[in-house]
Design brief:
about 450 residues, four-stranded mixed β-sheet, 17 helices, about 15% strand, signal, Bact_solute-bd_prot1, ABC transporter substrate-binding protein, SBP
Length: about 450
């Protein structure tokens, strides 16, 4: 999952209510006559030789990480396509995208999160995205799961993912060595190390308790380590979120907060503060996404990485495709052939290698060369497990968003010891809608 700032599940009704407020009472809705209809990719083009400008929205929340690679990617694309200019702005977040959808004023291209949430399929349903199925994009380098990420009802709607997102424990090797610690072989050894660090007066793990998404990363990392089989059973309708293994996941997070493993003032700390605490040696570790690897490398600390091991020592990590390079085309673009060329370039090895060299993401395609040994270190795990947010999204309905409840209710209450892990699991189970068994 990219710090990717996963977009919350939105229905047409909810989107309309929120955006009526944001737009001062604009009465048009995604399902109204103002909504676009998907067009044939070959239906519009510019006269031969004319200069075309494509307006592209980048991920505002990850501008610090993405600005350098996209400058290089866009320059390389323009060099190969001198008649196309890329006007790339870091203008997209949840609010700006929703406003653009409501006002029917999308840019030519913008980033999407594929099948990680229901947002892309909702946009497809309401005619906002260009169907790329007949665009003849080269998909030969990609496997079925990568194609599925971009597919809705058997049709392709975005450039394909080529990197893997997960959460790891970034740790300061100097602090660990000073306290006689190494990479833990199992869960008990991991917890014993945290106790030892706390006793030595070192905050074991920096946590951004103030930031809704960043405070959730430990839960996202713990869930597959503790309860991957239980989560999978719930997703398939063969089990429930009240499974003891899932309750133990939530309880472990509460225990970390209660035992002081996150420090004294973590509830008031944002992500910038948590990262500063780690990179300046105030904290021994931080649990964060692989998408932020470059940030920690740039700090200059003696950096190490490891996935959280379970009780048996198995390293099962949360997995999801990175959305750093997955872009869709607005159905209303006037330059669909040129936009498709840009998406084809993003789906190619040249652009992907530029991204890898700048960010050090974990590649999923063999012809992308890992940036360094640190990238290889992030890829050392035993099994790619499920993304808990994505699973809870599957169990949600327009009337009860289970993923949103985890983020906004359950995690905050766990951090303050207002509920137990078992109670948190019960809260989620009560509003979950499990698939019917045939």
């Amino acid at each position: 999952m990219t710090k990717n700032k996963t977009v919350m599940l939105l229905t047409v009704t909810v989107m309309s209510v929120l955006l009526l407020q944001a737009c001062g009472g604009n009465s048009s809705t995604p399902g109204s006559s103002s909504a676009p209809s998907s067009s044939n990719p070959k239906s519009s083009s510019s006269p031969s030789g004319d200069k075309v400008t494509l307006k592209v929205w980048g991920d505002l929340g990850n501008q610090a990480v993405l600005e350098e690679p996209f400058k290089k990617i866009n320059a390389a694309f323009e060099a190969k396509n001198p008649n196309i200019k890329i006007k790339y702005d870091f203008a997209q977040n949840d609010q700006s995208l929703n406003v653009a959808l409501q006002a029917n004023e999308l840019p030519d291209l913008f980033w999407v999160q594929g099948d990680k949430t229901s947002k892309m399929s909702e946009m497809v349903k309401n005619g906002f995205l260009l169907d790329l199925t007949s665009a003849n994009m080269d998909l030969t380098r990609f496997k079925a799961p990568e194609k599925d990420y971009c597919t809705v009802n058997g049709k392709l709607y975005c450039s394909l993912p080529s990197f893997f997102d997960t959460n790891v424990v970034y740790y300061n090797k100097d602090i660990f060595n000073k306290n006689g610690l190494g990479v833990p072989k199992n869960w008990d050894e991991f917890v014993q190390g945290l106790d030892k660090l706390k006793t030595a007066g070192v905050t074991p793990i920096a946590l951004a308790g103030k930031s809704e998404w960043d405070r959730a990363w430990p839960v996202f990392a713990l869930a597959p380590a503790f309860a991957n089989n239980a989560i999978q059973a719930a997703q398939l309708g063969k089990g429930k979120l009240t499974d003891p293994a899932f309750a133990q996941t939530l309880q472990a997070f509460r225990d970390f907060a209660e035992k002081g493993y996150f420090g004294k003032d973590f509830l008031a700390q944002d992500m910038a503060g948590a990262q500063f605490s780690f990179t300046n040696g105030k904290s021994a570790a931080i649990i964060d996404g692989t998408w932020n690897n470059a940030t920690y490398v740039a700090s200059g600390i003696n950096l190490g990485r490891f996935p959280i091991p379970n009780k048996e020592g198995k390293r099962v990590v949360q997995s999801s495709y990175s959305n750093f390079m997955t872009y869709a085309i607005s159905a209303q673009t006037k330059h669909s052939p040129e936009a498709i060329k840009y998406l084809s370039f993003l789906s190619g090895q040249e652009a992907q290698q530029i991204m890898e060299d700048s960010t050090g993401l974990v590649p999923t395609i063999k012809d992308i060369k890992p940036k360094d040994d640190g990238v290889k270190e992030m890829a050392v795990f035993d099994e790619a497990g499920l993304n808990i947010y994505s699973v809870l999204t599957v169990l949600s309905t327009p009337k009860s968003n289970v993923a949103d409840t985890l983020m906004k209710e359950v995690i905050p209450k766990l951090m303050t010891s207002a509920i137990t892990g078992e109670q948190g699991a019960a809260i989620l189970d009560k509003i979950a809608t499990y698939p019917a068994q045939k």
